[in-house]
Amino acid sequence: MEHYATLGSNCLIEDRVRLGFQYRDHCLKARIGDNAVIRSMSLIYGDVVIGDNFHAGKGVVVRGNTRLGNDVELDNGVIIEGNVQIGDRVKIGARSYVPHDVIIGNQVILGEDVVLSFGRHTEEVPRKFMGNVGTVIGNRVIIGSHSVIHPGVNIGEDCYILESTTVTEDIPPLCMASGRPAKVFPLTREMGRKMKMEFNR
Fold this sequence. Notes:
By secondary structure, the chain is mainly β. The protein has two domains: 1-88, UDP N-Acetylglucosamine Acyltransferase, domain 1 (3 Solenoid), CATH 2.160.10.10; 89-201, 3 Solenoid (UDP N-Acetylglucosamine Acyltransferase, domain 1). 5% of the residues lie in helices and 31% in strands. It has one helix at 189-199, and strands at residues 5-7, 12-13, 18-21, 30-32, 37-38, 43-45, 49-50, 55-56, 61-62, 67-68, 72-74, 79-80, 85-86, 90-92, 97-98, 103-104, 109-110, 115-116, 136-137, 142-143, 148-149, 154-155, 160-161, 166-167, 175-178, 183-186. The strands form four sheets. Strands 2-5-8-11-14-17-20-23-25-26 form a ten-stranded mixed beta sheet. Strands 1-4-7-10-13-16-19-22 form an eight-stranded parallel beta sheet, with no helix packed on it. A five-stranded parallel beta sheet has the order 3-6-9-12-15, with no helix packed on it. The longest helix has 11 residues, at 189-199. The protein is globular. Mean pLDDT is 91; it is low at 120-131. Belongs to the transferase hexapeptide repeat family. One of its GO terms (biological process) is lysine biosynthetic process.
C-alpha cells in the first residue's frame, strides 16, 4: 500500500498499514521519526507528527492534527482521536481510548482498557457553551487498567490512579486516587517508589 508520509531511518512498517490517510483537502503528510515500528492493520492519519522510537501495536488508530513525542508506545487496538498532544516516554495499554482535545504530559503510563471519556455538544448544549472539554494529564502519572476519566478533568503531576477508578473531578499533584467515584489521598512514599520502578522498566 502506498503511504502519504515522511519516515525517518530504520523504520519497520508491517503489511496492511496505512500512513498519512487524507481525511480532508490539502492534508499534510504524516511525519514519523526514526526507529518506528508499526504493526499490521494500523492507521495513521495525515497532519500527524510522531517523534523517534514510536511503537504501535496491531490495529492502532491515530487521527489527524495529533502530536506524539519521542518514545511513545501504543499497544494493540489503541485509538487516539484528533487534536491530541502526547509528550515523551508515554505508554498506553491495549484497547485504551483517548478522545479529542486531550493533552498528556511526559513519562505517563495508561493501563489496558483505560477510557478518557468526552462530552458531545447537542442542540440544547451547543459547543460554544461547553468550553474546552479536553482532559489534561500532567507529567509522571500512572492510570491503572479499566479506569475511566471524565471529560475536562485535570490530573496533576506525580499522581497514581489505581485500577478500575472513575475520576470525575480534578486530581491535585502528588496524589493517589481509587474507587468509583474516586477518593483522593496524598501520595505515599511506598506508592512513589512503585511509580519510579514502573517508569524505569
